[in-house]
Structure formats: C-alpha cells, structure tokens
C-alpha cells in the first residue's frame, strides 16, 4: 500500500511525526514518543486505513480524529508536568538552596523537555500540512491547530525560563567562587608579612643585615611605613 521508504519511517520507533503526499496515497505518521510504535494513517481517496501491527485496516474518520486528539492531549499533559518541575527548580534556585545534585536534575529535565519540544514541532507541522491539503477537514481540526500553536508558545516560554535558571545558577556559582577567592586572598595577605619576618629572622646567620637586638623592631616599623604609603598611593590613584 505504501512504498518501502515510508514503511521504514512508519515502523522505525525513533521516527518523528510527518505528512507525506504521493500520487497514489497520502500518509500521516503520528509520533509522541521516541520509544514506542508510531501511529500511521493512509488516505486513498475518501478511504482511511490505519496501520495495525503489520497490516493496514480500513477505519473511519472518528478513529483517526481520536488518534490526533490523543496525541494533542499527551502533549498538553506532559507539558503541564514539565512546567511544574520548572516551577520547583525555580523555587529552589531563587532561594539559593541548590545542592550538588542540582545540575543532574536540571539537565535531565532539559533533555526531556527538548525531546518533547521536537516531537511537538514535527506533529504540529505534519498536521498543518495534512489540513492544508485536505481542506475539507479544516473545520474539524481548527481547534487542534490552534491548541498546537498555544502549546508551541508555552514551549518557547518554558525554554526561556530554563535558560534563565541556568544563567542564574552560573552567576551564583561565580559569585560564590569570587567570594572564596577574596577570603583566601585576605588571609594570605594577613599572614604574608609574618611569614617574611619569621623566615628572615629564622635563618641561622649571625652577621646578616638587621639580625641584631633591634632588628625586628626596625623591620616592623619599616613594614608599617610601607603599608601606609601603599594604601595612600592606592587611595589617591583610585580617586
């Protein structure tokens, strides 16, 4: 009934939805999952045939319409579920309560949502192509095509929210990293003069410069003088 190329597309589990028009028949493939068998409907004139296992069985418009409505309902339900997950992640990230497992949860949701967006896009295009060619069905599928457009808009908005969440997460991680570096720098700056003094006077030499009785005092005063001059210069330079 259909050629080998279209049969392979229909039988391939990972196929996407699509509408194919030939001189002998029209084929509409409905796919809502990359892991399950696709639904296929062949149109020969006014007759409709549905693929059931390895055969094409004649069916009616009501059953075909139900298959389209079921696919649309699946996209609506799944999108609602993913939107709830996005809201939960937003509540966690904006309260700064994310942990080491945040990225794993985020990328799992991002991957599943991206697959849904791909499947929905192909289904919407396939149904629109079908309705454009079968103009007599435009009235019956008017609500479906409008619903698909609304879902497409929600998918775009949700995708933007996911991108904002990831950007916010990165900014928070960068801010935390910068704060840790600042603290480490301050601690190092505090102990550096002490390390220099300890290292200088800890050397086992008796005739070195400033190794006498008042050497420590001289070095300490010199360091204070150097720090004051440096702070004054930095303040004046920034001003």
Task: Characterize this entry briefly.
This protein is α+β, with helices and mostly antiparallel strands. It has helices spanning about 5-10, 60-95, 100-135, 140-200, 215-239; strands spanning about 20, 25-30, 40-45, 45-50, 55-60.
Write the layout of secondary structure elements.
Elements: H1 4-11, E1 18-21, E2 26-30, E3 39-44, E4 47-52, E5 55-59, H2 61-94, H3 102-133, H4 142-201, H5 215-238
Antiparallel strand pairs: 1-2, 2-3, 3-4, 4-5
Helix pairs in contact: 2-3, 2-4, 3-4
Q: What's the average pLDDT?
A: 85
Q: Strands across the major sheet, in which order?
A: 1-2-3-4-5
Major sheet description: 5 strands, antiparallel
Shape category:
rod-shaped
Assigned CATH architecture of the domain at 61-176: Up-down Bundle
Helix/strand/pairing category? alpha+beta
Point out poorly predicted stretches: none
What fraction strand?
A: 5-15%
- Looking at how many chains there are and whether they match, the oligomeric state comes to single chain
The level 1 CATH classification of the domain at 61-176 is Mainly Alpha
Q: Which sequence of SSEs, written as H and E, runs from N to C?
A: HEEEEEHHHH
How many runs of DSSP E, i.e. beta strands?
5
CATH domain topology of the domain at 61-176: Methane Monooxygenase Hydroxylase, Chain G, domain 1
In percent, how helical is the residue content? 55-70%
Could you tell me how far the N terminus lies from the C terminus, measured between alpha carbons in angstroms? 83 Å
Radius of gyration: 35 Å
Count the helices. How many? 5
């Amino acid at each position: 009934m259909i050629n080998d190329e279209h049969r392979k597309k229909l039988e391939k589990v990972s196929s996407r939805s699509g509408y194919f028009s030939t001189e002998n028949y029209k084929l509409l493939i409905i796919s809502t999952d990359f892991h399950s068998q696709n639904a296929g409907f062949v149109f020969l004139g006014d007759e409709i045939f549905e693929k059931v296992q390895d055969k094409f069985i004649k069916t009616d418009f009501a059953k075909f319409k139900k298959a389209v409505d079921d696919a649309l309902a699946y996209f609506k339900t799944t999108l609602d579920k993913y939107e709830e997950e996005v809201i939960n992640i937003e509540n966690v990230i904006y309260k700064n309560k994310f942990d080491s497992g945040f990225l794993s949860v985020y990328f799992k949701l991002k991957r599943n949502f991206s697959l849904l967006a791909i499947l929905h896009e192909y289904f919407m295009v396939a149904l629109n192509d079908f309705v454009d060619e079968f103009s007599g069905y435009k009235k019956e599928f008017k609500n479906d095509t409008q619903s698909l457009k609304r879902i497409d808009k929600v998918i775009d908005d949700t995708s933007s929210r996911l991108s904002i969440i990831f950007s916010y997460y990165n900014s928070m991680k960068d801010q935390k990293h910068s704060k840790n570096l600042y603290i480490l720098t301050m601690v190092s700056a505090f102990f550096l003069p002490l390390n220099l003094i300890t290292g200088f006077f800890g050397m086992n030499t008796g005739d070195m410069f400033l190794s006498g009785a008042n050497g420590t005092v001289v070095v300490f005063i010199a360091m204070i003088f150097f720090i004051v001059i440096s702070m004054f210069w930095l303040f004046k330079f920034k001003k």
